[in-house]
Amino acid sequence: MFTFLVQRLFQALIVMFVISLVAFAIQDNLGDPLREMVGQSVSTAEREALRDEMGLNDPYLVKYSRFIGNAVQGDLGTSYFFKRPATEVILDKLQATLELVFGATLIIIVLSIPLGVYSAIHPKSVWTKIIMAFSSIGISIPVFLTAIILMYVFSIELGWLPSYGRGETINVLGWETGYLTREGLAHLVLPCVSLASIMLPLFIRLVRSEMLEALSSEYVKFATAKGLAMKKVYYQHALKNTMLPVLTVGGVQIGTMVAYTILTETVFQWPGTGFLFLEAINRVDTPLITAYVIFVGLIFVVTNTIVDLLYGVVNPTVNITGKGA
């Protein structure tokens, strides 16, 4: 296990280095940050002096080496707009984004597993046909359209749920959460459902296909032939082996959902990192853009590592070290 952790740490460092290199490289193509920082009255000479002071005229390797040196100390630059460390700004907004991802993940888990298992156990049922039709439609509809439809129906027409903002939050040990207030929960419903709509159809189909494969395997046939109760065969034998590939995809998709919050947060004006990222692009706030890309990449790396570690919990027969017995 220790060797595996060392290997994954080394791989994570390589991945983060590549992500930082790409993120830093694209920032030069996003325009001139001074355009958003100073007015038209500032002369060309003053602009050039500011560029020299901010290090914008330095060669690429010099800027990148300076960035890496600061990054290893936790300094990803200072936001041009907020006049605060980019890491601090993102961490403030990350709480709202993670709450959105957490709510969407709960919806996906609670719905995809029972619906996928049911459609595998009863492949010819009318409800199975409805479930599969729903998943097909869900895959085809983009998240922003789902968000707009939900907003129109439940906010504008019915007036049941708020259409924008985060609502009232409570500070719990430094974490601003909306899960502990009625207003906060009401504001979470539509964004969480919209975000979950991206992955829910995929997971229903994934659970169903893996469950069908497990039900057709030899060990399930043997367990059935022994006369075990079908519920035990379904939920103790087949479902357990279904969870390993679902866990694999799920770990990757959690990081994907963090990136996908950009569209959801934009529609619902949710004050998270996705909405912040779009504002940073409009303002050409390059330190904030670079920091956001690195944070999203870090979430991917961390979740994938955790998934690999969970392999041994879900299925002890998996050799995560990759070595022979």
Short recap of the structure:
The chain is mostly helical and 325 residues long. It has 12 helices and 2 strands, in the order αααααααββααααα.
Explain what you see.
This protein is mostly helical and 325 residues long. It has a single domain, classed as MetI-like (MetI-like fold), CATH 1.10.3720.10. 74% of the residues lie in helices and 2% in strands. It has a two-stranded antiparallel ribbon with strand order 1-2. The two termini are 14 Å apart. 30% of the residues are buried. The mean pLDDT is 79.
Number of strands: 2
CATH topology: MetI-like fold
Query: What pattern of helices and strands is seen along the backbone?
Result: HHHHHHHEEHHHHH
CATH architecture: Orthogonal Bundle
Oligomer: single chain
Average predicted local confidence, pLDDT: 79
Largest sheet: 2 strands, antiparallel
Report the end-to-end length measured between terminal Cα atoms. Answer: 14 Å
Structural class: mainly alpha
- How many separate structural domains? 1
Based on CA inertia axes, which overall geometry fits? globular
Number of helical regions:
12
Strand order of the largest sheet: 1-2
Q: Low-confidence segments, ≥5 residues, pLDDT <50?
A: none
What is the CATH superfamily classification? MetI-like
The CATH class is identified as Mainly Alpha
What is the helical fraction, as a range of percent?
over 70%
DSSP strand content:
under 5%
Gyration radius, in Å: 24 Å
